[in-house]
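Pilot study result, target chain (272 residues):
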Amino acid sequence: MRWPLVLLGVLLLLALALVLRAALYRARLRRVIPARRAPRLRHPVVLAHGAFGFDEIALAGRRHHYFRNISERLGQLGASFHHPRVPPAASVSLRAEKLVELVRELPGERVNVIAHSMGGLDARFAIARLGLADRVASLVTIGAPHFGTPIAGLSLSRAAARILHIAALGDLTPQALERFNHEVPDANGVAYCSVIGWSDLKHTNPLLWPTHAYLSAHAGANDGLVPASSQRWGTVLREVHADHWAQVGWSLRFDAVALYEEILRELAALGF
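Predicted structure:
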């Protein structure tokens, strides 16, 4: 009669050992992978799109923001987003005027602006030249051509700008940005940050291969449209391996949502 009791005791000890082992593993895992919590931002986020951008577009029966899946996913963590739409092919000054108008319509005292590509120039102009500094706590630019992009200066680009009346391209040449940076200084009281993106040809959207090859030969590392050397402004938060479109979620190879979550956590840690 004793053997069944001994066997039962052994089985109970084994079960207890397995439970304790699982508990220790979960505790260790929690230390390695912290639980996801909502970034405690003081101010809402304005997502400013780039040239030829949009606030929302319908594709295959679904609606997508320019910053694809960002507000949808991170809004579930508690972050608040706004998607202003500015004239897609207009000059920086006109786009900036519209951005100022839309931001001033928002509730609250200040906002954090996360701007992609030309949107970063719009935001800088709006802050420094159009009096928006009192409403902006921080500006994070992603893939922005702060020192221009040689693509905008190509003969084909200049011809397209003239024929199609695309003022945006003329504002994106290295020569134009040299003047811009002289005339648009950073404003006091606003935190300026940037994210630098670049990609190799293998991880670049095939539609960007020609421009990527040209920039690689003439400007070094790039994201398919903007040289990496042109994207640095203020404090660099991240350098990411992502082409120009992947930076705003239009790629299956890059986790843009994770990038923006990291940015929000950085801003929250800085008190924004």
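One observation from the pilot: The CA atoms of residues 194 and 236 lie 5 Å apart. A full batch analysis is planned for the follow-on phase.
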